[in-house]
Specification:
- With 246 residues, the protein is α/β, with parallel strands linked by helices.
- The protein has a single domain, classed as Aldolase class I (TIM Barrel, Alpha-Beta Barrel), CATH 3.20.20.70.
- It has eleven helices and eight strands.
- The chain has an eight-stranded parallel β-barrel with strand order 1-2-3-4-5-6-7-8, surrounded by five helices.
- Helix 3 links the parallel strand 3 and strand 4.
- The protein starts with a strand and ends with a helix.
- The relative contact order is 0.15.
Length: 246
């Protein structure tokens, strides 16, 4: 049985002071050992949020990382920096990173490898646009993203990676893929993982993201190939409790 994981992606929200206040409010509501719970917060909030999370079952996550150890990369953050402040999970390849900051499958692949080198866990995002869905190429597109993002990984390393399926048309729009639509794509992801890594695919966790909330979480998370959620706006309020305790 794959343990469920629910990760909040705070995106570019909350100053350090606000982040501490939110963390103090949420931690008593979502601190559980039944699922893995993660707060993925802006870089400037990592240290203060990490301090508040000490002594809980909630893990600290980052929203991005660069694939070099150090150097003249103004504005970037290295995996060593994240590791030192207690980060356990790192989101990479989010559609917003791809759309606004020119993230590619190739850079995602470099980041996956570098995160694993530092004993952190990548949450690798994939997803299709509305145009791609309407053109009937969703599965083909997702398969390519997964294959390129996990290129040259061993099965033992791949087992540590979490895949997050986020249909781009459902992110921040209030629209949500139906449970069957989400399951169809997550099953396709597990199928391609099986083609690459064999039986290891059954051990790998696949999350769904895209307007997950307290009302739809239970139905989504009980699908056979959906092992939790990557939650955006709902992770910034008390409704996150309903998702975690679905």
């Amino acid at each position: 049985m794959r343990k469920k994981i629910i990760a909040g992606n705070w995106k570019m929200n909350k100053t350090p002071k606000e982040a501490v206040e939110l963390t103090r409010m949420l931690k008593g509501l979502v601190d559980t050992d039944k699922s893995d719970v993660v707060f993925c917060v802006p870089a400037i909030d990592l240290i203060p949020v990490g301090e508040v999370l000490k002594g809980t079952n909630i893990s600290l996550g980052a929203e991005n990382v660069y694939y070099e150890e150090s150097g003249a990369y103004t504005g970037e953050i290295s995996p060593s920096m994240l590791k030192e402040v207690g980060v356990k999970y790192v989101i990479i390849g989010h559609s917003e990173r791809r759309q606004y900051f020119a993230e590619t499958d190739e850079t995602v692949n470099k980041k996956v490898k570098k995160i694993l080198e530092h004993d952190m866990i990548p949450i690798m995002c994939c997803g299709e646009t509305l145009e791609q869905r309407e053109a009937g190429i969703t599965i083909e597109h997702i398969r390519i993203q997964v294959k390129k993002g996990l290129r040259d990984l061993s099965a033992s390393d791949a087992e540590k990676v979490i895949i997050a399926y986020e249909p781009i048309w459902a992110i921040g729009t209030g629209k949500t893929a139906t449970s069957n639509q989400a399951q169809e794509v997550c099953h396709a992801i597990r199928t391609v993982l099986g083609e690459i890594f064999g039986d290891t695919a059954e051990k790998m966790r696949i999350m769904y993201g895209g307007s997950v909330n307290g009302k739809n979480a239970a139905e989504l998370f009980t699908m056979a190939d959906i092992d939790g959620g990557l939650v955006g706006g709902a992770s910034l309020k008390a409704d996150f409790e309903k998702i975690v305790n679905y």
